[in-house]
Amino acid sequence: MTRALSSPGGDVTTVICAVVGGVLGYHGFVLLLDHGSYALVLPGGLAGLVAGIPRSRAGVVPILCGIIGIVAGLLAEHRFAPFVADEGLWYFFTHAHNLKPMTLILIGLGGFIGFWVPFRRRVRRAA
């Protein structure tokens, strides 16, 4: 019965859905930012929610989805507030630990949602 719930390409589909959700979350963040809202958890959260639609089997897939959520959040923050010293993306990623604690918490929360939703939707292997 578990084979019917998960196709062989379910793992790849889940990761692709996470990327699509991250992109949608990034654009949603920018749209909300233009209207005065700072929803930094949105890119990672949507990555996880969209990745939770298909079911996967591999244990590494939720970890990849969490990483995708964190990267999406960092890209969104870079769009909002790049560093003054260097506005480059590589500089931003290598100095992300210098961001404010609340910013890091929001990005981390998005990454956690990006991990947790696909993790909870995994198809467990029959013993």
Average pLDDT, rounded to a whole number, is: 87
Count every beta strand, where a strand is a DSSP E run of 2 or more residues.
Answer: 0
Structural class: mainly alpha
Provide the low-confidence segments as ranges.
1-6
Overall geometry: elongated
Please give the radius of gyration in angstroms: 16 Å
Beta-strand content bin: under 5%
What does the oligomeric state look like here?
single chain
Cα end-to-end separation: 13 Å
Q: Main β-sheet: number of strands, strand sense, barrel status?
A: none
Count of individual domains = 1
Query: Helix amount, in percent?
Result: 55-70%
Task: Provide a descriptive summary of the structure in words.
The protein is an all-alpha fold and 127 residues long. It has one domain. It contains six helices and no strands. The protein has helices at 2-5, 10-34, 42-51, 60-80, 89-94, 101-120. 39% of the residues are buried. Residues 1-6 have low confidence and may be disordered.
What is the fold's blueprint, element by element?
Elements lengths: L1 H4 L4 H25 L7 H10 L8 H21 L8 H6 L6 H20 L7
